[in-house]
TrEMBL record, chains A, B, C, D:
Arginosuccinate synthase-like N-terminal domain: residues covered: 11-174
Lineage: Bacteria, Pseudomonadati, Pseudomonadota, Alphaproteobacteria, Sphingomonadales
Assembly, per entry: Homotetramer.
Source organism per UniProt: Sphingomonas abaci
One Pfam family it belongs to: Arginosuc_syn_C
Key word Amino-acid biosynthesis present: yes
GO cellular component, one term: cytoplasm
Gene: argG
Residues annotated as binding L-aspartate: 127, 131-132
Entry keyword Iron: no
Protein family membership: Belongs to the argininosuccinate synthase family. Type 1 subfamily.
Protein name: Argininosuccinate synthase
Enzyme class: ligase
Domain of life of the source: Bacteria
Catalytic activity: L-citrulline + L-aspartate + ATP = 2-(N(omega)-L-arginino)succinate + AMP + diphosphate + H(+)
Matching InterPro entries: Arginosuc_syn_C (IPR048268), Arginosuc_syn_N (IPR048267), Arginosuc_synth (IPR001518), Arginosuc_synth_CS (IPR018223), Arginosuc_synth_type_1_subfam (IPR023434), AS_cat/multimer_dom_body (IPR024074), Rossmann-like_a/b/a_fold (IPR014729)
């Protein structure tokens, strides 16, 4: 059954979730490529037990020293989510990029393991229609230009669910009951978000059924009392919730709890995939939604206008790069350098109110505030601002328009 | 008392609200400039009776034929609000530009009246610290490059509230009781929004007191049942609510009612003024908030990715231009030309859910939809998309990163 | 020999130059696809006889009514070169996009012919490493989404020059003597430019040999006397040379003659291809170089600063889109709408001096000039500009920097 | 004669050239402000003797310890010119910003001196119509937010040349003969460039008279033989000429000599000033023109496409900021951070040919080259690039255009 045209592979590191699809891939790799499979399972806060993945891998003959299960939660939030949040990145104006931002970290760790165990290939379970294949593979190639990439979904003939399950059964891969029927949609989860797409979501006119949501309560079921919280920032990153210092992942997890409780961060979106099609997704980003808004809040008083507006103009590009999988690219890193430069004084406290699906900044303060009550006041400002300056300011801003008006109007 | 250094003015058109400030200005202009004053009062949907302005103007000696009261609501929404909404403009990521977008229309109408009545000057009641003076005057100068502009707040010595009231009283200008004490904040209103700033809002850490809001109920007091609505768009502009065709201003007014009822569109913001300072404002944009989200919703299925992403990159610049008062500028008009070009097929229906301060798109459909269920489906797509194409797509997107990786990593 | 896995093709329109490569393709298509081949040969001013292409096509059995030879020179300059010049597009800061801009027109005409003759496929002779395949095919797909595209260089096994010639000889395709040896480089030519790449140019440190240039004299051999010319523009497009009205293609051809004579428009460039690699090219754009500079010259006095700077910011993106083959894309068309809007008053005359490889604007005038000697003069300007306005202008521009300085410095 | 409304000034640091204008200012400051004047004269490579400035200042009563004459040439090139060149900044597509880039350094040094000598004010000799006043003063305010700025040209009544000379003569300020008549134009010079504007240049249709040029020979008088040179770069900055290591200022000076000899770097421009008017200037940037082209040359092989294109999109904004005087602004510094990040591997050698006014890159090489002959070759690449990948690449890039085409065409 081995395809003799396939190039020889010695050892492959598979991004392995322990689920049905990647278990089938594991077996298929062993069989088709006759190669040793190394599994890598990342804890990114998806909220699933990971040890069963170890057992399953062992069952399928993966050597114990070839089973990697890593807790990457702190690295994920500190080195991926927070830098992206500094940029106020929103894809297509609305989406907080929860799936996109996790892929480069998985790719990076997979390559590290490949180097460690001397693997010559890596593999993943993303399909050929989606963005994730691009994100994984651009990461692989950027970090290990000569690595061999195996993307089973683009290669094999298991193109329907039933053939996949048939393969699993004929290879003694356990199939849980709920996988036998067609799942009504497909999901991805990590500490930042849960996404769902496909199946019952495929008609963008149909409302997302309530059972699709898993990370947030329905706003209608959220508490009737608003809850007020504070987040402290230091140099652009969150460091405390309600005055209690927390590590990045701990902070995001705590915000997730708050967001879940108040039904915050649901998004029904039709977006443009990098591969050229539109897709409809449902996203839940409870903590991230609160965090993103809070970050803007602290920037409002600590960032100069020039910096703020430049950031606003660069943000769509930054978001596009992350979405398209170009995390490990010089241009994303250049934008990050600019963004990071701006965050030096983005330090202070933001107060927010959470209530039945909505989240609003209600106050912000900072030792580095650029807001000057003395200058802005309607009262006597004692010379802090000379209103007559405005006359000249307007006159010279108007000069080109006047010359134009004389010519054209 | 006339300042002999002031250049002679024959006739001045004043943007006149009928309130205390512009009434004092009216009198002051007559006195200081010894000139004829023409008043112009615009109905932009601010929700105030305008006829009292006529009576007051007459009382101060303005000739009946020099009193202009115009209903500009349809023009405001059709030619200013809607074109701006087509651009998805948000100032500093959050603000829907409710005040900024009204100023150019007032300026334009003032200049038209000036030409009609042969006036050589125009005047407004905006202070020397704010953005509005800039917006008014850039409009004046663009449309009538040689007009004379009188900005009393930058000229006179009535620099405190008590001196203003003293002047009013000594000139028989009626002062309503509530103007005698210090107003706790200052407001601006039109069909798109109400803004408040100053006084009790001046400390950006203090929560906005509930009595500052006037256009929306507190979300906590909003109905316990969500309400679902639809908005129809044609070529980028809203044309119907719940299937009922409406004119632009009627549609926005109806959305305002819905937004008010559900507590939608409140924004507490610290923003950067064009004149160089930060200020804290509270905005209520009930209908506009719903409309803006709906517009993004219909674009999601009708705009190509290239168009959508270009729009996203241009939007911050567009918003900055509107905010800074450059509505009548070649660069805003160029951006508008690009944006308008993109809206040709932005036609269809969006469904939204309104609930206790939040507003979410729950469905969108269009006869010009670019969303293809056939292409995106997880099921067998019968050749609509060949997953193997993705391999080459990724390989060539990765090529430069691989060359880079070989050099650097 | 026919590959049975190839989908059936009935009739294919081939972009046919009459040269060796496309003649081999013609034959190969007939043989491999067993289909009728329609040839299309465009006169884009490449300066070659086109009738021989007809004879060759007939010789290979193409029906006379299936041989299309069209003079597209005027359309090329008027609808492609000029609009691009309005945008001041320069790829990577230097390249005038001579090859890129011709491809969409060829693609468009090919599709028109395909529709006319009822063809179900199109084909071209671009290789799998270059940009041209992308430009052709994006054009095809945009204009005829369901057309079948055959790119022989990506399909066949004629992967070396000798195999190509072998195929030609075994199929009675005439091979001119100079094609038998390895050509030292490959070229493309049209009315805007000639490009050369490959072979002797492949090491970017080696100087381009003089024999590679064909469109311009070596500047050292150019006349010792400078020549002064004028170009008249109307609404952004050139309309006359030295006061003599000319059609677009005639004007560009006349400028080419001038550029050739004075050695103008040579460019040695290492550029980034869309497919991910760097390549080294040599370009000669004699007339286009003069024209582009002249266009900037007339814009200098007729474009407002706001319009000019927005154009400068959009130009790299526009150039990238054209280079990458996205001429028929909404985003290029949106940018064009913005650019075109700006050109309404770009009318007037530019004077240039041509001398031994260099070209400089030495004067410009316009009935719509925005340059005001009265305002700018060092002499007494009689109140056209009040220098005291500058104080307020600076003060308010400085305000945010002062607030920042108080905090940070 | 002292204006009693002027605020008291104790000590002022004047940017002093030793010329007529700033000598008059020196005296006027002493007289009008009754304050101590400190003079600061910078050697930025303008090519003038600076010691006469000392003598003149002493003559007018400036204390020896209050006379500062600093050689800032190395700092100028290293910390201002080179960082700007890394960004490939060109104002309005053509101008290398020679005047703009010198102003922030002068401002910075003036503020340093003010702090050293305890001055409470600074002053400069720029007029109220130009950009330089803005550049100086934005620099002052950014670095010393509470400094007092005296701009005599915006204050005094010496508004004509004859009144200025009259003032000079009545105060024993020596007036050189050539200053008595009207100078035919005004100039600024430093190591990067010489600019001229005004008077005989005021009509943008008139050709710049030959006597206006001072830094370059007329190309027609340049050597008949081309000269070939090499420049070495390290991390984005020039470090050697023809293999000889040089400091930044030495390198630029040597390039100036070469540029002068070959007539390189003349530019006749109508530009848009920040204060709102158009002006016509003549610039000579001999060494800078060569350097800028060489920098692009080395970037061509060492910068990745993503980095290069992002730089191209940011460059117009960067140039605008420098031109407008916002060197010391967060947004310029953010852009610089992005640019600097990109320059890490911009190391190598560029070869250029100089000939009668033109300068062209003829070769470039680098130990960090990203150019891969193996990938790009027309010959057999032995698998470095799989041409079939291009099919998928094009197919997915085309997908959205096809969906669009199906809808619209």
């Amino acid at each position: 059954m081995t395809d003799s045209t396939r190039p020889a592979v010695n050892k492959v590191v598979l991004a392995y979730s322990g689920g049905l699809d990647t278990s089938v891939i594991l077996k298929w790799l062993q069989q088709e490529y006759q190669c040793e499979v190394v599994t890598f399972t990342a804890d990114l806060g998806q909220g699933e037990e990971l040890e069963p993945a170890r057992a399953k891998a062992e069952l399928m003959g993966v050597k114990p020293e070839h089973i990697f299960i890593d807790d990457l939660r702190e690295e994920f939030v500190k080195d991926y989510v927070f830098p992206m949040m500094r940029a106020n990145a929103l894809y297509e104006g609305l989406y907080l990029l929860g799936t996109s931002i996790a892929r480069p970290l998985i790719a990076k760790r997979q390559i590290e393991i490949a180097k460690m165990v001397g693997a010559d290939a890596v593999s993943h379970g993303a399909t050929g229609k989606g963005n994730d294949q691009v994100r994984f593979e651009l990461g692989y190639y950027a970090l290990a230009p000569d690595i061999r990439v195996i993307a089973p979904w683009r290669e094999w003939d298991l193109t329907s669910r039933s053939r996949l399950i048939e393969f699993a059964e004929s290879h003694q891969i356990p199939v849980s009951k709920d996988k036998r029927g067609e799942a009504p949609f497909s999901t991805d989860a990590n500490l930042l978000h849960t996404s769902s797409e496909g199946k019952v979501l495929e008609d963008p006119w149909d409302e997302v059924p309530d059972y699709v949501y898993s990370r947030t309560v329905n706003p209608e079921d959220a508490p009737d009392q608003p809850e007020t919280i504070t987040i402290d920032f230091e140099r652009g990153d969150g460091v405390a919730l309600n005055g209690v210092a927390m590590s990045p992942a701990t902070l995001l997890a705590a915000l997730n709890d708050l967001g879940r409780k108040h039904g915050i961060g649901r998004l029904d979106l039709v977006e443009n995939r990098f591969v050229g099609m539109k897709s409809r997704g449902m996203y839940e980003t409870p903590g991230g939604t609160i965090y993103a808004l809070a970050h803007r809040g602290i920037e409002q008083i600590t960032l100069d206008r020039g910096a703020a507006h430049l950031k606003d103009e660069l943000a769509p590009r930054y978001a596009e790069l992350v979405y398209n999988g170009f995390w490990f690219s010089p241009e994303r890193e250049m934008l990050q350098a600019a963004v990071n430069y701006s965050q030096e004084k983005v330090t202070g406290t933001v107060r927010l109110k959470l209530y039945k699906g909505s989240c609003n900044v209600t106050g912000r303060k900072s030792p580095h505030s650029l807001y000057s009550e003395k200058v802005v006041t309607f009262e006597d400002d004692q010379g802090a601002y000379d209103q007559r300056d405005a006359a000249g300011f307007i006159k010279l801003n108007a000069l080109r328009l006047r010359l134009l008006g004389r010519r054209d109007r």
